[in-house]
Amino acid sequence: MAVDTDKNSYTIIFAVIMVLVVGSLLAFTASSLAPNIDENERMEKQQNILYAMGVNGNVDKGDITFVSTDKVADEFSKYIKQQLVIENGKAKEDNKAYLIDIKKEQAKAKNGGTRRLPLFVGEKDGKTFYVAPIRGKGLWDAIWGYVALDADMVVQGAFFDHKGETPGLGANIKQRYFMDDFNGERLLTDAGVFKGITVAKGNNDPTNKIKDDYEVDALAGATITGDGVSAMIKKDLKLYLPYFKTLK
């Protein structure tokens, strides 16, 4: 018996079947790729953490070369001596601290919950680094980064990234010349008061040789993105101050 394809019921049944088939295929594809996606996220986070503390393949002044994906797990284990999670003012070891979703933790705190703060303690060339993840808002979308500090909360390295900042302007937060400007910048006053770092358009030190002014030179044409970097540094890194006081 021939099927009457002109009936509305045929169109509806066909549409329902197609939705079920396509939905099932998408669900299967997503579940199949999930392990690969998680693995890529792990490697990227570990590369960024290592980059901030100076474990990278940079040679020339403009280089941004991460530890290769085939070596990053071993290098992470070699240089990162502790992974900590700070919660309610107490720090405890957690070997999967790098998997903590900063965006979700910020949302949790905004809704009255307790935010978990991951911190990565690394050692390189006899020096101890404390690498903290930060996250904020740029002009168009999210910006984030990792900042390596010493026990006095002096910046030893930084890595920044973004989701959708303007190419050639705000997107330049992930350029080497901008990230390197933060090296040596202080977050605390001599009295131990947290000041943070401002990406300042009117900065009188464009070569960033002065390291106790709590400022770095702004990116041309990227005021809002720069303000976002300033805000996430001040907001997120200040949360780690109680922990750093315990190091004294």
Automatic annotation (TrEMBL):
Cofactor(s), by name: FMN
UniProt modified residues of type FMN phosphoryl threonine: 223
Protein name, as recorded: Na(+)-translocating NADH-quinone reductase subunit C
Membrane topology designation: Single-pass membrane protein
Species, as recorded: Winogradskyella haliclonae
Alphabetized Pfam families for the sequence: FMN_bind
Lineage, top ranks: Bacteria, Pseudomonadati, Bacteroidota, Flavobacteriia, Flavobacteriales
UniProt family annotation: Belongs to the NqrC family.
Locations listed in the record: Cell membrane
Keyword hit for Aminoacyl-tRNA synthetase: no
Subunit structure, interactors included: Composed of six subunits; NqrA, NqrB, NqrC, NqrD, NqrE and NqrF.
Keyword Phosphoprotein: yes
The protein's Enzyme Commission number: 7.2.1.1
InterPro entries from the UniProt entry: FMN-bd, NqrC
NCBIfam families, A to Z: nqrC (TIGR01938), PRK05346.2-4 (NF003753)
Stated role: NQR complex catalyzes the reduction of ubiquinone-1 to ubiquinol by two successive reactions, coupled with the transport of Na(+) ions from the cytoplasm to the periplasm. NqrA to NqrE are probably involved in the second step, the conversion of ubisemiquinone to ubiquinol.
SMART domains: FMN_bind (SM00900)
Ranges annotated as spanning the membrane: 12-34
Residues covered by the FMN-binding domain: 138-240
